[in-house]
From TrEMBL:
<dbReference type="InterPro" id="IPR023267">
    <property type="entry name" value="RCMT"/>
</dbReference>
<feature type="binding site">
    <location>
        <position position="285"/>
    </location>
    <ligand>
        <name>S-adenosyl-L-methionine</name>
    </ligand>
</feature>
<feature type="active site" description="Nucleophile">
    <location>
        <position position="381"/>
    </location>
</feature>
<keyword id="KW-0489">Methyltransferase</keyword>
<comment type="function">
    <text>Specifically methylates the cytosine at position 967 (m5C967) of 16S rRNA.</text>
</comment>
<dbReference type="GO" id="GO:0005737">
    <property type="term" value="C:cytoplasm"/>
</dbReference>
<dbReference type="InterPro" id="IPR006027">
    <property type="entry name" value="NusB_RsmB_TIM44"/>
</dbReference>
<feature type="domain" description="SAM-dependent MTase RsmB/NOP-type">
    <location>
        <begin position="171"/>
        <end position="444"/>
    </location>
</feature>
<dbReference type="InterPro" id="IPR004573">
    <property type="entry name" value="rRNA_ssu_MeTfrase_B"/>
</dbReference>
<dbReference type="Pfam" id="PF01189">
    <property type="entry name" value="Methyltr_RsmB-F"/>
</dbReference>
<keyword id="KW-0963">Cytoplasm</keyword>
<dbReference type="InterPro" id="IPR029063">
    <property type="entry name" value="SAM-dependent_MTases_sf"/>
</dbReference>
<dbReference type="Pfam" id="PF01029">
    <property type="entry name" value="NusB"/>
</dbReference>
<dbReference type="InterPro" id="IPR054728">
    <property type="entry name" value="RsmB-like_ferredoxin"/>
</dbReference>
<keyword id="KW-0694">RNA-binding</keyword>
<dbReference type="GO" id="GO:0008649">
    <property type="term" value="F:rRNA methyltransferase activity"/>
</dbReference>
<dbReference type="InterPro" id="IPR001678">
    <property type="entry name" value="MeTrfase_RsmB-F_NOP2_dom"/>
</dbReference>
Length: 445
């Protein structure tokens, strides 16, 4: 049986090869592993930690190894990254254990010839006081931030240019560390306060957040799906930014609403609750297996107004009647949720460059479904003006029948001075939620 460290190293190698999602990669390996819950928690902490700090760890390796990183065996790279992560960021692991376990792992993974090199690099690093090879901030500010915050240079340049140096550093800081866990009470069944009380009985830390009605922050949850309150459909897991997005669309009972890019369905469910589960809410997604996720979630929550359907949001379907409100939560770079999915920062900028046009095509098509007097909401979990403000600006200039619609009052309270207008970028530092962008537009005629 693999140890927790071996499983982590294998998961990291898989990520490098397949460029797949971190949670899917780890969950698959853990489910076949037979590890104890304590070992599983250790493997998860090490795996996500290494993914998050990889650029810092690689800078340390590059400053100490003669062989360039790309020429090392993947196993050796993974073992060194794990060993250094334990030395730098895991207080619970004694230094001697971090080194000895790394050496043992090299042997166990068939890299016995590299065991001496692993040993020497890690011991040398400890002996010298574990220094980070930070470039001089005055001479190479981007290089400094890159090593200090384990972030790629292109991202630092993008955020510096888009949001200014101070905001950029704040964003880099908040891209590290575990995000808070938020839930949305199924307000068709109970209030956030009543749900908090139910969860307390099950030993879960839960606090209703009155500034975002229906929202709670959870702590010490363990496996959410195992909770009776979850099985009974009393809540779904949803970040505050996504809850606010549904509130910005502000649907009313009895209306016709389309959620065009809806899976796995979090915003659809909140919309249905805001509509008191009365009306005509259709949630589309382009992938059949994802449509099933929306159906399953709506069933668990007992939301009868939700209809999930297969649909391509970029292609006009003339059979669809026009709607009162349309949500366009488009596929995006995810630069606002790096702390949840650290692999996003290892994408190459070229991989993201096609997104604004894809998003614009969806937004343009979505406009066809909005009634005169109806509302169109465009949103992303991206922190990138090309995917956000620039698409909205272009849309307004090419669609004179649409005009900016002010965001609801709750936004003024939460983001004073920033949300009077129709659009808002939410930064993780604002209220602890995911980075997010939303814009509300009204069809005048
Ligand atoms: C940002 S996610 C949506 C998250 C969702 N709104 C929620 O709150 O749970 C974008 C979704 O759009 C879907 N998608 C991508 N291209 C699409 C298209 N052309 N038409 C419809 N859905 C699409 C993806 O499968 C993905 O599920």
């Amino acid at each position: 049986m693999d140890t927790a460290r071996m499983l982590t190293a294998k998961a990291l190698i898989k990520m490098e090869r397949a460029k797949s999602y971190s949670n899917l990669t780890l969950d698959r390996l853990l489910s076949q592993s037979g590890l104890s819950s304590q070992d599983r928690a250790f493997a998860a902490a090490l795996f996500y930690g290494v993914l998050e700090r990889m650029l810092t760890l690689d800078a340390v390796i590059a400053s100490r190894a003669k062989t360039p990183l790309p020429q090392m065996r993947p196993e050796v790279r993974a073992i060194l990254r794990c060993g250094l992560y334990q030395l730098l960021y895991m207080d619970t692991v004694p230094e001697s254990a971090a080194v000895n376990e790394s050496v043992a792992l090299a042997k166990a993974m068939g890299q016995g010839r590299a065991a001496g090199f692993v040993n020497a690099l890690l011991r040398g690093f400890i002996r010298e006081g574990k220094p980070l090879p930070l470039p001089d901030r005055g001479k190479d500010p981007v290089g400094y931030l890159s090593v200090a915050y384990a972030s790629p240079r292109w991202l630092i340049k993008l955020w510096n240019k888009s949001y200014g140096e101070d905001k950029c550093e704040g964003l880099l800081r908040s891209s590290l560390g575990r995000p808070p866990l938020y839930a949305r009470a199924n307000t068709q069944k109970l209030t956030a306060e009543a749900l908090a009380a139910r969860l307390h009985e099950a030993g879960v830390g839960a606090r209703a957040l009155p500034h975002v009605p229906g929202a709670l922050q959870l702590e010490g949850v363990g496996e959410v799906r195992e909770l009776d309150a979850f099985k009974e459909g009393l809540f779904h897991i949803q970040d505050l930014s996504s809850q606010l997005c549904a509130m910005a669309l502000a649907p009313k009972p009895g209306e016709r609403v389309y959620d065009l890019c809806a899976a796995p369905g979090g915003k659809t469910f909140t919309l249905a609750q805001l509509m008191e589960d009365a009306g005509n809410l259709t949630a589309f997604d382009i992938h059949p297996h994802k449509v099933a996720l929306i159906e399953d979630g709506a069933k668990r929550l007992g939301l009868r107004s939700v209809r999930a359907a297969l649909g391509d949001a970029s292609v006009y379907d003339e059979a669809l009647p026009q709607a009162d409100r349309v949500l366009c939560d488009v596929p995006c770079s995810g630069l606002g949720i790096i702390r949840r999915k650290p692999e996003i920062k290892y994408k190459r900028p070229e991989e993201l460059s096609a997104l604004p046009d894809i998003q614009y095509k969806i937004l343009q098509n979505a406009a066809n479904y909005v009634k005169a007097g109806g509302i169109l909401l465009y949103s992303t979990c991206a922190l990138s003006p090309a995917e956000n403000e620039e698409n909205v600006r272009r849309f307004l200039s090419e669609h004179p029948d649409f005009s900016p619609q002010a965001l609801p009052e709750v936004f003024d309270r939460l983001f004073p001075g920033r949300a009077q207008a129709h659009q808002l970028t939410i930064f993780p530092e604002d209220i602890g939620s995911d980075g997010f962008f939303l814009a509300t537009l009204r069809k005048e005629r």
